[in-house]
């Protein structure tokens, strides 16, 4: 096969740009990674969650609670979990997101979210607006309107 200068230039440009495009696509989906602060008004619970990448999916876990212990000084546990065998696990370290994936056409992350305040899991969609992560948890199909949206504020470091 005979290569012309145009073909060679095109191939060179393609192989130089392809890794850059791949990095851009990867960084777009990785924007969710970081620390987020959340205040639950109903429960008056302050927490910080860390979102991280695990393989090709995204997970989140509770890494800080303003009040990590109950009134009697014991660590707060997952007392509302529907699975009784999990009710003794501490809220600190509990997984909130487990397996979000990035939907490039909708520019958002999709999967499920666990709410330790009531022990329920919901389907969810998450997207970034400025320095916040909006998370819509829903039951059934998203368009049915049985949903709730919460806001997590991005922070630069882990709380202590």
Describe the SSE topology.
Blueprint: H1 5-29, E1 34-40, E2 45-54, E3 57-65, E4 95-103, E5 108-115, E6 120-129, E7 132-138, E8 147-155
Antiparallel strand pairs: 1-2, 1-8, 2-3, 3-4, 4-5, 5-6, 6-7, 7-8
Descriptive report:
There is one protein chain. The chain has 160 residues and is of the alpha+beta class. It has one helix at 5-29, and strands at residues 34-40, 45-54, 57-65, 95-103, 108-115, 120-129, 132-138, 147-155. The protein has an 8-stranded antiparallel barrel with strand order 1-2-3-4-5-6-7-8. Strand 6 (120-129) and strand 7 form a beta hairpin. The chain is globular, with a radius of gyration of 21 Å. Residues 8-25 have low confidence and may be disordered.
Strands of the largest sheet, in order across it?
1-2-3-4-5-6-7-8
User: How does the major sheet shape up?
Assistant: 8 strands, antiparallel, barrel
Low-confidence stretches: 8-25
* Fraction of residues in β-strands: 35-45%
Could you give the distance between the termini?
A: 63 Å
Average pLDDT works out at 86
Please state the structural category: alpha+beta
Q: Helicity, in percent? A: 10-25%
Number of helices: 1
Rg from Cα: 21 Å
Order of helices and strands: HEEEEEEEE
């Amino acid at each position: 096969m005979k290569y012309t200068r145009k073909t060679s230039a095109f191939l060179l440009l393609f192989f130089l740009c392809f890794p850059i495009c791949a990095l851009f696509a990867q960084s777009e989906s990785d924007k969710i990674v970081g620390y987020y602060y959340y205040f639950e008004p109903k429960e008056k619970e302050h927490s910080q969650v860390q979102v991280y990448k695990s393989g090709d999916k995204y997970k989140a876990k509770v890494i800080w609670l303003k009040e990590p212990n109950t009134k009697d000084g014991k660590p707060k546990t997952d007392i509302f979990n529907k699975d009784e065998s999990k009710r003794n696990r501490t809220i600190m370290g509990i997984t909130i997101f487990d397996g979000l994936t990035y939907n490039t056409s909708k520019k958002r992350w999709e999967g499920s979210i666990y709410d330790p305040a009531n022990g329920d899991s919901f389907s969810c969609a998450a997207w970034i607006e400025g320095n916040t992560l909006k998370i819509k948890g829903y039951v059934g199909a998203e368009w049915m309107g049985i949903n709730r949206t919460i806001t997590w504020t991005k922070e630069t470091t882990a709380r202590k």
